[in-house]
Amino acid sequence: MAQLNKLEYLSVANNKLSGTLPVSLFSSMKDLQRLYLQNNQFAGALPTSLSNTVNLRYFDASHNGFTDSLLFSKLPKSLYQLSLRSNAASLTLDSPDVTRFQDLEVLDLSSNKVRGPLPSTIFLLPSLQQLNLSHNQLTSISSTDHLDFSNSQLVAFDASHNNIRGSLPVALSRLNRLSSLSLSSNHFTSRIPDEYAKKVAADGSTALPLARLFLDGNYLQGEVPSLFLKPLPNLISASFTYNCLKKCPASLSFCSGSQRPDSECRY
């Protein structure tokens, strides 16, 4: 297979292939543009020869057992979409290699072992539209307050089901195109920023409104921003349940579930 130097499309998806990929598998595949390995039983690290696929645009290796910790150093910077969800990749995102991917539009690393802080620089990838890091082991989001998001293309960000602590990042409300934000099931302990409510109510002239906002399953405190208590100009799918919020009226759809008992809100 390594001799197929004119190959542009390769899919072995949805089989029961297992084992590790040969180190030299992609050595001569410089024309490869689409690679689909999803839904198999591959394990171990991705081969270093992947870096030779300099025209690769779409790579899906979801639902395998890859354990790669050096993922971004092996992949070509030509990628538009990268999906490695539901593997066992134990890696951090604070590597300078991540910033090489200037054309990346979709990054899905959900259900892995991504750990440590989420560097703010990932929000500055100029083409990134969808970022899914849910069901991992992230512990914090680096400060984003100083960043210029005016050119950001990010539409959807999911960091639910991690171990992120601290305050909800206010600066995410400055992502003009962001319409879906999920930070559920973490350890955030701040109030819900007024800026989130303003983003929900945006009229679309300068920024898209938030249509999805999921903050349930944290330890958020205080009262719900007053703007949420008024009729909103835009339809929203949201949940603020199972936090430590005060005055979250059950009449509001996003407050319709219970909050945490007081015994869980003393920290």
Describe the structure.
The chain is built from two helices and 17 strands. The chain is about 5% helix and about 20% strand. The chain has helices at about 70-75, 195-200, and strands spanning about 10, 20, 35, 40-45, 60, 65, 80-85, 105-110, 115-120, 130, 135-140, 155-160, 165, 180, 185-190, 210-215, 235-240. The strands form four sheets. The chain has a ten-stranded parallel sheet with strand order 1-3-5-7-8-10-12-14-16-17, with no helix packed on it. It has a three-stranded parallel sheet with strand order 2-4-6, with no helix packed on it. With about 270 residues, it is mainly beta.
Write the layout of secondary structure elements.
Elements lengths: L8 E3 L6 E2 L14 E3 L4 E4 L13 E3 L4 E2 L4 H4 L6 E3 L22 E3 L6 E4 L11 E3 L4 E5 L14 E3 L6 E2 L13 E3 L4 E2 L5 H7 L11 E3 L22 E3 L28
Parallel strand pairs: 1-3, 2-4, 3-5, 4-6, 5-7, 7-8, 8-10, 9-11, 10-12, 12-14, 13-15, 14-16, 16-17
Largest sheet: 10 strands, parallel
Order of helix and strand elements from N to C terminus: EEEEEEHEEEEEEEEEHEE
Oligomerization state of this entry? single chain
Physical arrangement of strands within the biggest beta sheet: 1-3-5-7-8-10-12-14-16-17
Rg estimate, integer Å = 20 Å
Which structural class is indicated by helix and strand composition?
mainly beta
Query: Can you tell me the residue ranges where pLDDT is under 50 for at least 5 consecutive residues?
Result: none
